[in-house]
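Sequence only, no structure available. Ideas?
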Amino acid sequence: MTTARETVLGRIKDALSLAPAPDIAVPRGYRTGRTLPDDERLALFTDRLVDYKATVHTCTADRTAHVVAEVLRERGARRIGVPAGLDADWLDGYDGEVQRDSDDIPAPRLDALDGVVTASAVSCAETGTIFLDGSPDQGRRALSLVPDLHVCVVDLSTVEAGVPEAVARLVPQRPTTLISGPSATSDIELERVEGVHGPRTLAVVIRTDV
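Reply:
I predicted one. Tokens follow.
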């Protein structure tokens, strides 16, 4: 006995097999190659992040550990999770408990963490979007979505001016997570509600000399 779902999908499959495959050309004439000087990219990216209600902290690479620890202390994060491949030097100034993530840890257990610290793959200044691609220093998607605080380290050299330029630096086969500020949505009365689908707080540490 077939289910309603199987019946519907079967009819769709039959219809598709009878219809000739259309020859569709997808236009790819995106505007590409845009660049901005470092100071302008930093200013634009920061403006977009702040507009999305993220907090932004800039530093040089040698101050990464100090700034990350300061952000975690300000947020009262005593137990954090980090991807397995995160640079351990970034946590030198942090005196709380650090849990290295692995696939063996069930996603619900990540809710016990006060926050997470990750690196990033690419960012877009024009939209204020940060891309994570599942690399060892960024970890699995659950790690950056379940804890209520996400501290994300971004190198200014990975911040592109626009979306096409940013997407061109991604590896299509990798799982990509796009972050544009803290997780937020609106209720039925259009009141902003944060933390529904991800971290309530996003703190971005931009390393200006990397």
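The helical segments are 4-18, 38-51, 64-74, 141-145, 163-167.
Hope that gets you unstuck.
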